[in-house]
Amino acid sequence: MGFMIYDIALLVIFLLIFGIFLYRKRKNVDREGLLFLYRTKWGMKLIDKVGTKYKKSLHFLSYISIGLGYLLMVGVLWLFYTILKIYLLHPEIVDAIKVPPIMPLIPYIDKVVPFLPPFYFTYWIVILAVIAISHEFAHGIFMRRYGIKIKSTGFGFFPFFLPVFPAAFVEQDENSMVKAKRFEQKAVLSAGTFANMITAVVFFAILGIFFVLSFAPAGVVFDDYAYSVVGVSAITMVNGISVENVSYTTLGELVEDAEFNQITANGKNYVGIKGFSQDKTEVALYDDAPAIDAGLNGAITGINGVDIITLDDLSAELEKYHGGDKVSVKTKTEEEKTYEIILQDHPTNSDSSWLGISFSVQSSNGLMNRVFSVISSFKDPHTYYEPKIGEFGWFIYYLLWWLILISISVALVNMLPVGIFDGGKFFYLTILWMTKSEKIAERTFKWVTYLFLLLLLGLMGVWAYALVM
């Protein structure tokens, strides 16, 4: 809540300053459709300076930019295919997450998608400015390198929402662009996504340096309580009722209305159901262990007054005790809490006590999961960190985290072979190069655009149906 107050205050201050600035510079503001455009001269000067001074370097980078453009196009097509497969073949996932296939980037999106970190108005303004300026100016620099005329540069904003910079622009001369060689056009078109990826790499390095300097490990984070996998048919008692030949269906009926389930299987007692195997023949049951019995929650930061910083610290401390020993376990979430827990003997190591917590392996399947994993690679998922500069450290950390993620996302989406994106014209030029026929290239470009829009409309329909059912 504290950051939200600061965030709204910063937003109000920014809007006041920006509103005064636009009023004083209103002669440079023009309306074009729904957008208001503010044209600047310093943008042209910067583009001219870079585009003319580093011609050889820019020509070399053109090959990298075009190659990266193709890689990003393949990546976003694979991502689109994966989303399509999930929405069509796994409606239970769609119903569970309730997130539409297209989610606009809005402040406080984390309130809609809970697994995302905080996203403030301040983030929104800063990130849009960084991404839009680098993206458009990269277009302009490569235009200047290849002699493509530029009409103007500047910023655009929507007057009916929030008068902030949602976009920068470099207005090209279309006739000059069409007359350029196909290689030069593709270099210009892919330059924006190239800049976005460079931005992601640079801020990834900044994030790493910032995290190392500003955070310190301060506890151990566990993912779940200890559990065992048994055959459903091995269950002999549920909530005090003896059963035989239990199936998935009958087990579900027995535990449907119970908040806490006591289950016996293979002569061992369990205290709850974690989940079932895909074929419903096996079930994961929570062990009757100290942690779940005590309702242990939060990052473990101490045991009997001894600080627990790493997983090794936790293991070493538990080895000092035996089953039946009582310990005070200190944890921290939003506040500190202490649990009095009686330990058990470790099931596989008689020389160590057992708390009964588990640590899952983080999944990296899927393109975006891999992206999340890479961005957060500085953080051990099982370590709790404290910022050395107070909670403001997390504010900066998540700003950099979002900047990297959105830079990559914009680069991917912008290379979709759809007419409204740079990837659309990039795709058209590729088909033209392959077929040497403008007619075939235009038809292919048009039908691919229609296909993507139709598929997207279908995905939104599937999501809407799952939402109301």
Written account of the structure:
The longest helix is centred in the first third of the chain and has 35 residues, at 55-89. The protein has 469 residues and is an alpha+beta fold. It folds into 3 domains: 2-216 and 388-468, no CATH class; 227-288, no CATH class; 300-354, Pdz3 Domain (Roll). Helix 3 (55-89) crosses helix 7 (182-214), helix 5 (121-145) runs antiparallel to helix 7 and helix 5 crosses helix 12 (392-414). Strand 17 and strand 18 (353-354) form a beta hairpin. It contains 14 helices and 20 strands. The protein has a 6-stranded antiparallel sheet with strand order 7-12-11-10-8-9, with helices on one face. It has a 4-stranded antiparallel sheet with strand order 1-2-3-4. A 4-stranded antiparallel sheet has the order 14-13-15-16. The model has no long low-confidence stretch (mean pLDDT 84).
